[in-house]
Amino acid sequence: MGNSYIPSSVRLERIEEETDDTRTFFFDRKIDSRPGQFLEVSVLGYGEAPISINSSADENLRLTIRSVGNVTGAVHRMKPGDEMGIRGPFGRGWPLDEMEGKNLLIVAGGIGLAPLRAAILDIIRSRERYGNVALFYGARSPELIIHKKELGEWAKEMDVKVTVDVCDEYRKDICSAWKGDVGVVTTLFDKYRIPEDSTAFVCGPPVMMKFATKELLKRGFTMDRIYVSLERHMKCGMGMCGHCQIGGRYVCKDGPVFSVAEFVKWAEKPEEMEGVL
Amino acid sequence: MGTHMPPDRPESTVVHEGFFDEDYRARYILAVEELGHLLEEIAGERSLFAPVGDSFRRIEALESISQDGVRALFGPKKVFFPDYQEIFRFDARGRVEDALKPEKRAIFGARACDVRALGMLDRYFGEMDEPFYKTARENTLVVGLTCTESMPSCFCTQFGGLSDAGLDYDIWLTPLNDGFLAESGSEEGKRILASLSLPEADEEHLRAKEELIKRVEESMDWKPIPDELIFSSMRDGLEHPVWKEIAERCFACGKCNMICPTCHCYDVRDETDLYGNGKRVRVWDACHLFRYGLVAGDHNFRGKRLARAQYRVYDKFYYPVERYGRFACTGCGRCLDVCNADIDLRDILKRITGGTAHGE
């Protein structure tokens, strides 16, 4: 029997700066993944961290990583040519197969756009298979927007709206150039048209997913038409170590993407849904 | 993958039976003085683990094996799922050496609660073929032993009791007046018992076993609650005052996690020397501990003690029923024995199902 904890090796080819603490890392090979799945990234001597896959299956592996801990810090110190380990892909991603012919609303917050990028690329590649698609993206402030260049390209294929939480006279240096919307991402729901009868894919910080879900429910979205991607510290990725369990489900294996309708049946609700269900 | 069907089992369908195959059944009588021969036969090509004092240990001398008539404080979980397991070693140049090495083993003296717990670990770890557990389980002969007495904390009658029926083992021994009733439960167990040229057991021995089980089960201070009532009470009981009460008493020390024969959470971490050589290890973790739900950026998804105390109990009596159709508690009572706050699962079960607390 094989030891499924041993990572396989990938070589870093290129690094792109996204924000102060977030970079996108480009590797030397493709992996067979579906949008919304994640990898266990392994740096020997530091350990492993679960990182969502940023690339679609038909391009080389990319990971957008914020430096927040030991493992991600070690990845940020890597240089092109260095090798690191990966295990996976793990988990159940965005249910794109079920979205054919349907309208879609993608709601992203901050670095939460990264796990949605592969889904967006897959939609654009088979654009005719989907109806109206809108991407509502919110970041705390203009310098924290990721995938800046691509957002412009995606706007040719779908309705892209970007907003920042705060931009006022106290931040003139950054904000004088900002011509987009100001306000949290849910304010876009009233400013712009949400595709009719659409299904929502939501990914961002816990509090953002909570309010996005709340506001979508108010606007007539049924729970089975809202999907969220949950974040937990998966140590194994295989549904065994227990760290990602909520209500008896493993986020790593049964998720990380769940429809809000699923939570209703769980005895324990995810913290992201506090006060929503 | 791709289908959005959660593993729901809305109906409470609690089952107690395992994978037992009647074809492997053979029954013999083993005289007390023959027990040594059986153990030597088993230990011949295997490392033997049995209770010594309060826990299962590697046996060097057969005389050291505990003669107690009831479970040890620590069960045999460590033999299959060590508290500290090397996953692989690596050196500073990034070379990796696999640490998965099968060892032929046998455990002797596992009780019904211990083997029932193994059946639960089989499900948890078997769902994804966890390599270390699976390798250990496939290479370990399991010799069970019927209890001849109970402890004050025992309440296994809630979960199938002392009987080996439906448990997954190789050989089962039951102490009787004139030796042991020795029963095989696997092809390997059948082969080993046949090799000892023992007299066959008869109906009277089986009756004596039933009487022993009945006597010991009746000595336990527990009146079983219907499985469905436990399940439905848990489903509807999230707001029950009992949770707040135990959360106020609980020290969140994780001892109940460590001692529980079905708790199986672990952490994966790296250990290195000054030169950058090291190993990746798997160590037991506990859902009661504060940092269990911690993620990057210091967000804690289960920061409240109430949420953690409640979770452990739900992960014994509710979630495993949804996922596997069975309770993950075996009534061994170990968590009661070690709890500094005297939190008693039996009280929780009684309270939540509408009864009064133990001893009231």
Structure description:
The complex is a heterodimer of chains A (about 280) and B (about 350). By secondary structure, chain A is an alpha/beta fold. Chain A folds into two domains: about 10-90, Translation factors (Elongation Factor Tu (Ef-tu), domain 3, Beta Barrel); about 95-275, Nucleotide-binding domain of ferredoxin-NADP reductase (FNR) module (Rossmann fold, 3-Layer(aba) Sandwich). Helices cover about 20% and strands about 30% of the residues of chain A. Chain A is built from seven helices and 15 strands. Chain A is globular and about 55 Å long. Helix content of chain B is about 30%, strand content about 20%. Chain B has a seven-stranded mixed beta sheet. A four-stranded antiparallel beta sheet of chain B has the order 5-4-11-10, with no helix packed on it. Residues about 1-15 of chain B have low confidence and may be disordered. The chains are: A alpha/beta (about 280), B alpha+beta (about 350). At the A-B interface, strand 4 and strand 13 of A face strand 4, helix 4, strand 10, strand 11 and strand 12 of B.
